[in-house]
Every structure is written in structure tokens, then in C-alpha cells.
Target: poly(ethylene terephthalate) hydrolase
Amino acid sequence: MRRSLPLAATLVAALLCSPATADARTAPAAVHAADRWNSPGPHPVAVRPGLVTTLYYPGDIASSGRRHPVIIWGNGTGATPGVYDGLLRHWAGHGFVVAAANTPASNSGREMRAGIDRLTTLNAADGPFRGKVDLDRVGATGHSQGGAGAINASADDRVDTTVPIQPGPLAGASSLHGPVLYLAGQNDSIVPPSLVRGFYDASGHVPAVYAERAGATHFTPTGDGGGFRGVTTAWFRYHLMDDARARGVFYGKDCGICADSAWSDVRRNARVEPAPATDR
Model:
């Protein structure tokens, strides 16, 4: 996010050096709605660095019998994909091809959208990605400045769903055209929950969910994603893979996170459809 230079410098240092924070790295004893999605996925993980985009993807993609959906990623201010390495690997292990923008300034969303272009080329070329990337299923997500970048990148018609994680202010929800999950941290003093709720309130034209992680600070998503890892995985498993097991985390009368003590505030707007009666 574009803040004063002293604050930006503080954010960069904290992203690169901060230790694990409360919430976050210690799973509570109770069973929570998204816990099953915290565990590693079935795929080995491979990483392909690039000048503009670093790819995290299932290491068995060449022999896979299916096409794999895409997640495009934007870093926080001053950060690189390596700051979020565990989280990006986690999604790849669950079967996604993650295109992480190699930029510390992802607010525009342009570098994130370049990841879709790169995968379009690889999907048509000889090599392990040929015919294995599902370019009809694309999600955009990112942290802090990258969260705003995810919103901006979603102006692209190729993006189907969006997960802004503690997004900075320089974005407009009017660009969204698919379901959106806004994630905030209860103890975030850099992007306070009120800012994230402002985006949610402006998203009445699309199905929107707001979820505030109890005890989370602005740096909870770094590393392996902390308390945001399972919920983001569940969202993408449902919206990009049609995984029915993940639907109840967000949808229906008995929405999992709605009554989950790991989340201090959960809201769903009028466009979030209730589950059919047979699912209740």
C-alpha cells in the first residue's frame, strides 16, 4: 500500500524479519471450519523462478490427468514471493498453479495479470505445462499492497474470484465481477479492519464475504499463511475446483466460519446464496 516512507520502511523490515505472531502459528486445540485445508495437499511441489513471475505448481503436473486452476499472487510492500513461500507452496500442493509476481510494488495488478499471460504461453508450448493449465479457472489474491493489486487485477475478465488479504487502500471494488472473500486481522494496525470492511461494503454487486481473523496482526499471512492458510485454500478449492467439501466453510445456513471462534467477525452480503435445502 502507498503510505509514508517511514511506514513503508517499517513494513518492509517487518515482512522480511518478523517472527511468528500470536494467532497465528499455533493451531488452537478446537476443531475449526477450515482446519482440514491447513494440511498439505496430495501433490509434490515444484518452483520455477522467472524474471517477472515465479511459478509454484504441482510437481507431477506433466503426468496429471487433469487441468490445474490458476492463482495469481501479489506481494506486500517491499516483499518478494519468498516472504510467502510456505503459503504459495501450500496452494501448489493442493493442485493450483500459482503465478507470483516478482515485484515489491504490485498495487496496479499489471504484474499479477502478466502471470496469466505467461501461463497461457506455457500451456500452448511443449513442456510440462502443455494442456495442463486451466485458464478458465483463475483466482487473484495478495497481501497488503498485493491485496489491493488483487482487486485491481480482477478488472481482467479472465479472473473469476478474488481474495484480498488485508488489502491496502488504492483499489476500487467496482472492478470486481466474481465472488470475493475479504480477509482482515483483528489486531492489524497497518490495514485496520475498518478499511477492509469498507471494501466489503462497496461490493454489493457481487457475492462478498468478510472474515476477520481473531488475534491476527498485519504479518500473520507471511511465511506459511498462518491462520489465513486454510480458509484461502478452502475458498479456492470450492470456487476454482468445485470441491463440494469446501462449500460449507462459507455457504449455507450452517456456514462454517460464521460460528467459528477463530474468526472475530464474519459478514456475508445479500448476493451470497444460501445452500439448497438438501445441503442443510
Remarks:
- Residues 41 and 93 are 5 Å apart (CA to CA).
- The two ends are 40 Å apart (CA to CA).
- The chain is about 25% helix and 20% strand.
- The first strand starts at residue 45 and ends at 48.
